[in-house]
Design goal:
alpha+beta, Jelly Rolls, Phage tail protein beta-alpha-beta fold, 3 domains, 3-stranded mixed sheet, disordered N terminus
């Protein structure tokens, strides 16, 4: 018995959205359920909008989680869905599954109607979701619109859904975005004062101390900064291109061909650098180690690095660059300092 069949026969759109919301809250969807959910979302434009509001309201219950009424009603909704899941594959209790799914949905609809629904329709009350990784950690997140977000180590991304757009902000680090198609709601990622806009595509954004980078793998994106200066003009990328923009407000971004395999290598635990300055390389290497590598001599910050390194293996990285360049290291308790071997005059 498919949830969408039950929903389509006797449940309102709000109840269908609520049932899916509760199902997602109870755990990850298996491939068949994910396909069923995708089918339901694409069947009607209204489904996605109502589902988004249900998701925002469900997450917003945490703001009033101490209320005994909310605790009881939310627990009832999840318990009803768990009973439905236990019985859904038994032909003898298909009626119970239909009843339990409807009950779970109706419980959430009641919560939304009485406590939250009207409050969460205004964007002023909607709080963005925050996804963050720590040192050496990566994470893959499937968003409620079907988009997939891959976070590199030490990365923070905020996600906010509005009726007419999907607004993400890369606060730090690097992330890859595989965007679920929704022509009515553009998908935007802001980092370093520039916004990348797409409707259905695959791209990555990286924020460094001095630069931001956008690499386009599939589809098309536009990257623009606020204002009317030449540096703010919109730039359209084609697959295989990379935009690099200095974080200075007046800097004009440059577009160049990207090494797509190298640009994806971090997802598999490798860091690929092609003629990159040491100072930028260290930002990426340090995402994977609690022992930070620092530059102790300004003369070495501009050394250009080319090579492939295993993420998290700082020792091998240091051995490689000190063997290839006139560099030496000084090891302290919590950091390693890189200096030039060449004596100053």
């Amino acid at each position: 018995m498919r949830l969408v069949e039950v929903a389509g026969s006797s449940m309102t759109i709000e109840e269908q959205a609520s049932a899916w919301c509760i199902r997602l809250a109870s755990g990850h969807l298996d491939p068949a359920e994910q396909a069923e959910f995708d089918e339901w979302i694409s069947a009607d434009d209204a489904h996605g909008k109502v589902f988004d509001r249900a998701q925002m309201a469900w997450r917003g219950l945490s703001a009033i989680a101490d209320s005994p009424e909310i605790i009881a009603q939310r627990a009832d909704a999840l318990d009803a869905l768990r009973r439905a899941n236990r019985s859904r594959w038994s032909r003898k209790v298909q009626g119970n599954w239909q009843w339990a799914a409807a009950l779970a949905a109706s419980v959430l609809v009641a919560v939304l109607t009485v406590s939250l629904w009207s409050n969460f329709q205004t964007s002023a009350e909607v709080q963005p979701e925050v996804f963050a990784t720590n040192v050496g950690q990566q994470q893959i997140v499937t968003l409620i619109d079907g988009s997939r977000l891959t976070l590199d180590a030490q990365t923070t991304v905020t996600v906010l859904y509005e009726d007419d757009r999907r607004v993400l902000t890369l606060e730090k680090g690097r992330a890859k975005f595989d965007v679920g198609k929704d022509a009515d709601r553009p998908f935007s990622v802001t980092a370093g004062g520039r916004t990348t806009v797409a409707t259905g595509t695959s791209f990555s954004v990286e924020l460094l101390r001095q630069d931001m980078k956008v690499v386009l793998f599939e589809g098309q994106v536009k990257v623009a900064a606020a204002g009317s200066a030449p540096s703010a003009r919109s730039v359209t990328l084609a697959p295989g291109e990379k935009l690099v923009a200095n974080l200075s407000p007046l800097a004009v971004p440059r577009v160049e061909q990207a090494d797509l395999l190298g640009a994806k290598a971090w997802e598999d635990g490798q860091l690929v650098f092609i003629d990159e300055p040491l100072v930028a390389v260290l930002e990426q290497v340090n995402r994977y180690s609690r022992t930070k590598i620092e530059i102790g001599d300004a003369r070495v910050s501009g050394i250009r690095i080319t090579g492939v390194f295993n993420a998290g293996d700082s020792r091998a990285f240091l051995d490689a660059i000190t063997g290839l360049y006139p560099l030496k290291t000084q090891v302290n308790s919590d950091r390693v300092v890189i200096m030039s071997k060449i004596l100053q005059d």
